[in-house]
Amino acid sequence: MADLTLYTNPMSRGRIARWALEEIGADYDVKVIAYGPDMKGPDYLAINPMGKVPALKHGDTIVTECAAICAYLADAFPAAAIAPVLSNRGDYYRWMFFAAGPLEAAVANRNLGFEVPSDKEGMVGYGSYTLVLNALEQVVSKSQYIAGDQFTAADIYIGAHLMWGMQFNSIERRPAFEAYVKNLVNRAAYKRANELDDALAAQTQKAS
After folding, report:
1. What is the mean pLDDT for each group of 10 consecutive residues in the chain (208 residues)?
2. 117 vs 121: CA distance, rounded Å
3. How far is CA 204 from the centre of its chain?
4. Domain range 4-81+189-207, CATH architecture
5. Beta strands per DSSP E along 33-137
6. Which of these, 132, 138, 135, lies nearest to 108 by C-alpha position?
7. Which residues pair with 7 in a beta bridge?
């Protein structure tokens, strides 16, 4: 039994955590949590009181929230080199948490049909959907990866947001976003993670 366990569902953001696990190259176990009673039941709520996936267990440590899982794995497995040296982590932290905060909120609100009144934009952490996308476009246009020339866990998290957002039209397609994502989809770990989750999804649907 591996020291790492991923609690996930192949039709969830658990795919982000899977990608991060494949990047670090460590052995891990997978526990599929079905939507509905299983995800909201007492056994899983003891792992994540929010009743959502993914969650990661590493020994006695439990980590939830995709950005936190990506950052944790980068620190826990330094040999994988998916975090910059500490002196070069400004952009790494800045944009990973930008995606977890302003980007997440702006996209979710837009999908729900909620638009912040222009005179109230200062009251929310992201201002407006357009402002968020413009800021993100600027950073992905600067270099190959978020932290310069080095692929990091921030690219996993931000890249997944852009891939899914453009796929499902919650994030508008921009040439800079498409060029940035193109650098990521050919990574061996990304391909392995997708293949594993696609197979798991087919297996789960067949069993249901």
Report:
1. 92 98 98 97 98 98 98 98 95 97 97 93 94 98 95 98 97 98 97 97 78
2. 6
3. 22
4. 3-Layer(aba) Sandwich (3.40)
5. 55-58, 61-64
6. 132
7. 31, 55
Token pair of 120, please?
Answer: 């109230």
Asked if the bond preceding 175 is cis, omega within 30° of 0, the reply is: no
Residue 140 sits at the vertex; the CA angle it makes with 138 and 144, to the nearest 5 degrees, is 140
CATH top-level class for 86-187? mainly alpha
- Give 6's contacts (C-beta < 8 A, 6+ positions apart): 14, 17, 18, 21, 28, 29, 30, 31, 54, 55, 56
- Residue 188 and residue 168: Cα distance in Å, rounded? 24
Per the DSSP assignment, residues forming a β-bridge with 48 are none
Q: Are 177 and 134 in contact (CB under 8 A)?
A: no
Instruction: Give the amino acid at 174.
Output: R
Query: Model's pTM, two decimal places?
Result: 0.95
Domain positions in the chain: 4-81+189-207, 86-187
